[in-house]
Task: structure prediction
Amino acid sequence: MFNPTLPHSLTPTLPHPSKNVAQNPKVRSNLRNLIVLLLVLGIFFRFYNLDRKVYWYDETMTSMRISGYTQAQVLAEVYNGRVISVKDLLDQYQYPNPHKNLYDTIDALAGNPEHSPLYYLMARFWLQTFGNSVATIRLLSALISLFALPCAYWLCLELFGSATVGWSAVVLIAISPFHVLYAQEAREYGLWTVTILLSSAALLRAMRLKTLSSWVIYSLSVALGLYAHPFSGFISIGHGIYVLITEKLSWTQRLVGYLLSSLLGVILFIPWLAIVIAHFPKFVANTASVNLNREGFLPLFWGLNLSRIFFDVNQGSSPLSPLHYLSAILAGYALYYLYHKAPPNAWVFIVTLIGVTGMALIGPDLILGGRRSSITRYAIPSYLGIQIAVAYLIAIKNAGATSQTPTYKPWRYVAIALAFSGILSCAVSSQFPVWWHKSQSKSRYNPQVARVLNQAERSLTITDQIPGIVLSLSHLLHPDVHLQLVANQTIPEIPESFANVFLYRPSPELQQGLTQKPNLKLTPEPDSKSWLWQVQKQD
Result:
């Protein structure tokens, strides 16, 4: 398990495990069975109810780009008052189709350069191979997310030389409600998680072996990470800081290997980097203006997001929630314990993994204002570092826990509590079609709205909402439901051929325009929170 070729500076300083724990066959068997059970449950929740969660705004943007369209093109083509069926709308603008090819997908992605193209291109080929559906594209994300588990194990072996720590990290990530949520999203964040762990392990391996092939593998992992998410640049910067610190600012073979490998990784990324540079103003605008108007005390969002990697029942950011403080205490103590007990290089690596991305998000918020650091998914590198630190703490504390060591024994209960909270969180969130990560303002009441529209005979729904919101609702509707999409404050003429006419989340102008039409009455549907109105003709 521990590689004897590790340099002396990386030799792990793990406490000798108790014979009761490490050598008792019954204890080993029970521990192995528990790990297997938790892994199975973590994998199960990644695939459970894939098609029953609301396909929300950002996911529809994924599908729109895969199909080769931009939001502006959809507005121009179908927001003209023409009646269109849900089936035609989805087939044209949510799935690969004969009208658009791979180059159209790349063009659509170029308009949003803050999204690197790898996941989107993989998803397009996946759908073309296995068919078009919400479950199919989310299945790709769930499968990709599984690769994070062996990558986490490999990284822990390189950091600590300990299979025990590796398995602890694997279990924590497997049952983490945060990672399970994003494993079920038609978005790139599961892939990004894999590349973060992969490139980190590849760097440590290259520094250990110092061979040409190992550095080439690292350079490929750098390019892969950049093609998964542009924030992978922060990962590479953190790796550079780690190399400089561990090499004591000396011009060594490892530093040269890192620099050349990183340069090669960037060269391989040049095709997309050129697109980012060409659209740089839009790249900056889309990444710098995130959640600028979100209200609330910023540290409370940090505490909430931190707690969600261990326990998540859709809790809010109330300052009275003990989960924020318990999670912060656990993370803080784990880092403290890592500093005092782990190999020095391991501590430096974890701190750079957490700190570079964390400061890149928090710094602009503190200096310029805004709430960029409240976006949980952007801080995935930081949360992975915290989870690895907690995994080290749990593994080492429990390796020394026996009935004769009361100091260590409580850590068994901490481990049990973490396992229970992760499984409970996944079980709860799996039963709800809308969760916190799906921007409830854009999708919260769509299931209730869809239920009404699907039950109505020969229904027409009028709306001037933007395409992403309309497409999110459309994924919940029957194929034969019809829509009438309008823009620019246009008041449409309502066809006579529909028995039931509804208005979905109208702008004030559209609602007022229809209200002023003779013989029309607008009535809000119960339980829709004014998201859906019935349009009735008066005699």
